[in-house]
Amino acid sequence: MRRRGLGVSVFENMAFALVAMRTQKLRSFLTLLGVMAGVATVIMMVSFVVGFNNALTAGFTSFGASWGGSSSVSSARTCTSDGRIFS
Question: Would you list the domain boundaries of the chain?
Fold first, then answer.
């Protein structure tokens, strides 16, 4: 459906874009290369963060610390004055 004043359909825009990509091959290639580099950088940064998080978690776990499941307040044990322990 066309609106008055705009007058350009989706198909005309697609045809114009394809013609522009054919005539400006170097520009299209460099744009594609930039998009691919950006996506690869985001994937690499997410992998680094996940790997760092896993290494940090493994480091704390090796010392016997519980990581994440319950808070230290709820899992703390309290000792009364006569030596009895309760949670």
Answer: 9-58
Cβ count near 24 (within 10 Å): 12
For the record, the structure tokens of 66 come out as 């519980």
User: Which two structure tokens, joined as six digits, stand for 27?
Assistant: 């520009």
Considering just the CA atoms, what is the radius of gyration of the chain in Å? Answer: 30
Report d(CA 12, CA 30) in Å as an integer: 24
Q: State pLDDT tens for residues 6-38.
A: 778 999 999 999 999 999 999 999 999 999 999
Torsion of CA 77, 80, 86, 87, to 10 degrees: -40
Write phi, then psi, for 38 (nearest 5 degrees).
Answer: -65, -45
> pTM value?
0.54
CA–chain centroid gap for 55, Å, is: 18
Residue 46 phi, psi dihedral angles, 5° rounding:
-65, -40
